[in-house]
Amino acid sequence: SSMLSLIRKTNLNAFCKNYSSNVAPTTKLFIDGQFRDSKANDWIELYDPATNNLVTKVPQATQNEMEEAVESAKKAYQSWRQTSVLSRQQLMLKLQAVIRRDIKKIAANITLEQGKTLSDAEGDVMRGLQVVEHSCAAGTLLQGESLSNIAKDMDVVSYKLPLGVTAGICPFNFPAMIPLWMFPMALIAGNSMLIKPSEKDPGATMLIMELLNEVGCPPGLVNVIHGSQDAVNFICDNKDIKAISFVGSDRAGKHIYQRGCDNGKRVQSNLGAKNHAIVLPDANKEATIDQLAGAAFGAAGQRCMALSVAIMVGEAKNWIPDLVARARLLKVSAGHEPGADLGPVISKEARKRVETLIESGIKAGAECPLDGRNIKVDKYPNGNFVGPTILTGVQSSYECYKEEIFGPVLTIMYADTLDDAIKITNSNPYGNGTAIFTTNGSHARHFVNEIDVGQVGVNVPIPVPLPMFSFTGSRGSFLGDLHFYGKQGLNFYTQTKTITSLWRKGKVEVKSSVSMPVH
Ligand code: NAD
């Protein structure tokens, strides 16, 4: 009878699965310009983080579907690589116009699936849109090098040419910006791209695919598959995929870097972070407190460039009560609620994890002048909310310091001197972002010179470089050689072909030479 009940239970589970996958809206695949229902057996449920209501089901694409997507991208590449840079620019110019037109629509989808506030979600789209705009400079940026008369009657030119089919694997925290860091740069250089959005919020990518169709993007140039580990491993192993762009956590990123490289691919892997702010007592107090609160708690701390550690140097320690008061004013609610400053974190598990890390900090000896656990949010009793939290007196040995919390938690440390603060920052394994707050130019310059972090702000809390530069996280925050977007981004998506030509007037004297030609 226990066997019978087991079978019944299994059937019931299967029934529920089929039943609900028929009624819940599903996220489509995008292959060869078509939005398609997946034939997947496994579906991932996606919940609105503010209510935990089911929003959609995301398929774990089947092997066949993933293979079709690569075939389609391969075919699209064959004609796309022959197009002129001007016609590729035309596509991006049209795309930027419709993304701009639909910013609010895309932002609303981000707020629904990811939870961040509407204005923050618009920023998410906008930072991606800037990459689309900048890709239109490819006519200049894609130029190779040339030298005439490198030997008698001999000239050399080099071209930056596409790689073929490329792939992008995205995290949940910037559902529009990160795919837009990837495919516009890949396409403008003549590649096609397969995207695997985060299974936690693929909606923004799908809306952008609708826009690509609207502006006449050739079918197959960008395809979208969904899934998690299996889809990722498929991408790492598929021999037709030449390069992988990854943004996300250490665990996934190290795996993808290793497996992709083992398969002979180019990989750029943006990983986790722990970004330190150094506050000097000569800083502009009001501005610094505002900037710290915004950069620590905005997006509920779910930014890879969030300032999650503040090192108060000397007397700056005395500003903590004001910082606590400022953070207390931030309004926590569903992202679409007017006046909301921060929304929920992505999932119940994420909330639990953040709360556990806060707990561990307190247990280890930190004080908690502002505790966002168990926050009650009007109208949203089921959301994954954590309020702004401040832990002070944190030591580098604490779990809450060593782990990337990825929630609205600011851990505060103390240092006697700027050099002590620099030492703490440089001893952390991550090197994504950092900022100093000061009104003293020579302190600022010393900091810039000594700090071993890839993206540095001077009185700028979140120094994410604009698209004419590149996103240059370093040390533990990046694996690879070439960074995202900017000149490095185009170099990542291109290979160089160098042509040496000899054109001599009249009769060329031929004699076979067996030694290495030195021109
Ligand atoms: P994640 O690593 O969990 O997911 C990213 C992608 O990897 C997803 O598409 C997911 O399906 C896939 N994935 C997850 N686990 C995997 C596994 N074990 N094997 C193979 N694939 C796997 O990251 P996330 O939680 O979506 O994003 C948050 C993380 O991303 C944070 O650590 C944050 O710092 C980082 N991040 C970094 C940057 C940057 O530029 N450095 C930018 C944004 C986010």
From TrEMBL:
GO terms for molecular function: methylmalonate-semialdehyde dehydrogenase (acylating, NAD) activity. Probable malonate and methylmalonate semialdehyde dehydrogenase involved in the catabolism of valine, thymine, and compounds catabolized by way of beta-alanine, including uracil and cytidine. It catalyses: 2-methyl-3-oxopropanoate + NAD(+) + CoA + H2O = propanoyl-CoA + hydrogencarbonate + NADH + H(+); 3-oxopropanoate + NAD(+) + CoA + H2O = hydrogencarbonate + acetyl-CoA + NADH + H(+). It comes from Oryctes borbonicus. GO terms for cellular component: mitochondrion. It comes from the Eukaryota. Gene3D superfamilies: Aldehyde Dehydrogenase, Chain A, domain 1, Aldehyde Dehydrogenase, Chain A, domain 2. One of its GO terms (biological process) is thymine catabolic process. Keywords: Mitochondrion, NAD, Oxidoreductase, Transit peptide. It is an enzyme of class 1 (oxidoreductase). PANTHER family: MALONATE-SEMIALDEHYDE DEHYDROGENASE (PTHR43866), METHYLMALONATE-SEMIALDEHYDE DEHYDROGENASE [ACYLATING], MITOCHONDRIAL (PTHR43866:SF3). SUPFAM superfamilies: ALDH-like (SSF53720). The keyword Transmembrane helix does not apply. The keyword Cytoplasm does not apply. This is Probable methylmalonate-semialdehyde/malonate-semialdehyde dehydrogenase [acylating], mitochondrial.
